[in-house]
């Protein structure tokens, strides 16, 4: 894997640990929000906001692109962190969507986000 972004849980986070099921629920919640936005706008926004199929493995979630503009995003689950990884074949669309998903996860978890470019964003009260 070429690039990674990590969301760490800190003492001020709303979550104690991270599980595969919790991450799957967050992805479903993200997809549901996109679907509801599309209903309000009157067009199929969900396919553009979340252009991936979800594949669950033992310790990770793999988002496989549905068209040529998107390749794959890997979501690895650790006890107190979530890591989003992009392969060397990742497209600009993958990186943009991974950044969006990282921010969504970090906000819901109230965690510390280490972005792909090395910068850090704090989503918890300090």
Automatic annotation (TrEMBL):
Tell me which domain of life the UniProt entry assigns to the organism this sequence originates from. Bacteria
InterPro entries xrefs: DUF1885, Rbstp2229-like_sf
Which residues span the membrane? Answer: none
**A Pfam family of this chain:** DUF1885
Q: What is this protein called?
A: DUF1885 family protein
User: What species is this protein from?
Assistant: Anoxybacillus flavithermus
